[in-house]
Each structure stands twice: as structure tokens, then as C-alpha cells.
């Protein structure tokens, strides 16, 4: 079964409130076996519109990645994130 990845590009507008998003999302990530491969580290802009926080999260499968995103826990966190950050997010199936 192929793994899947959340890839997010984020502009945090309220760092204090963003901490609430992180703590609210944590149970969903734990329950769905999320493995953070990159989380806000140094990056090099190559093309397009770039945001300063980039996140890559690995899941065991596409189904697990979708289940995490659609979970009640993550949807509560998403509601917080949308008040304090702008983001582009995709789920990508991979190796």
C-alpha cells in the first residue's frame, strides 16, 4: 500500500493563536499515525508564490491521510487555523 503525504504551505498571521491550532490538531495526528517529515524548517524559494512555513506529514495510506483531515479533531483545529493563518494544502499519494 502506498503512503500518502499532506503538503502544506502556510502563512501564520497570529503566532500565539496558531499554537492553539497545533495543540488542537495533535490528537488527530496521533490517532492517525502522522509522521512529520518537515515542519517549518529552512527552505529555498524556487518558483511561484511561497509561504514561509512548509509542512510535510507522512501517513501510512491515502485513506489514513484523508481520515485524519476529515476527523472531528482536525476539523476543530482547522477552524482555529483559518482564523490565524492562510494555507494551501494537498494530499499526495507516494512511496
Order of strands, main sheet, comes to 2-3-1-4
The oligomeric status of these chains comes to single chain
* Terminal Cα span: 9 Å
Instruction: Count up the helices.
Output: 3
In total, the number of strands is 4
* Sheet having the most strands: 4 strands, antiparallel
Low-pLDDT ranges: none
Q: What is the chain-wise order of helices and strands?
A: EHEEHHE
User: From the alpha-carbon coordinates, what is the Rg to the nearest angstrom?
Assistant: 13 Å
| Helix share bin | 40-55%
Morphology: globular
| Overall pLDDT confidence | 97
Query: Could you tell me the strand content as a percent range?
Result: 25-35%
SS content category: alpha+beta
Q: How do the helices and strands line up, and which of them pair or pack?
A:
Layout: E1 3-12, H1 15-31, E2 35-39, E3 53-59, H2 62-70, H3 72-84, E4 85-94
Antiparallel strand pairs: 1-3, 1-4, 2-3
Helix pairs in contact: 1-3
Amino acid at each position: 500500500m502506498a503512503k500518502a503525504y499532506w503538503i502544506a504551505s502556510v502563512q501564520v498571521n497570529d503566532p500565539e493563536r496558531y499554537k492553539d491550532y497545533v495543540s488542537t490538531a495533535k490528537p488527530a495526528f496521533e490517532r492517525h499515525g502522522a509522521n512529520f517529515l518537515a515542519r517549518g524548517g529552512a527552505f529555498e524559494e524556487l518558483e511561484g508564490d511561497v509561504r514561509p512555513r512548509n509542512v510535510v506529514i507522512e501517513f501510512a495510506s491515502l485513506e489514513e491521510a484523508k481520515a485524519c483531515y476529515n476527523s472531528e479533531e482536525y476539523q476543530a483545529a482547522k477552524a482555529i487555523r483559518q482564523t490565524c493563518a492562510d494555507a494551501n494544502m494537498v494530499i499526495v499519494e507516494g512511496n
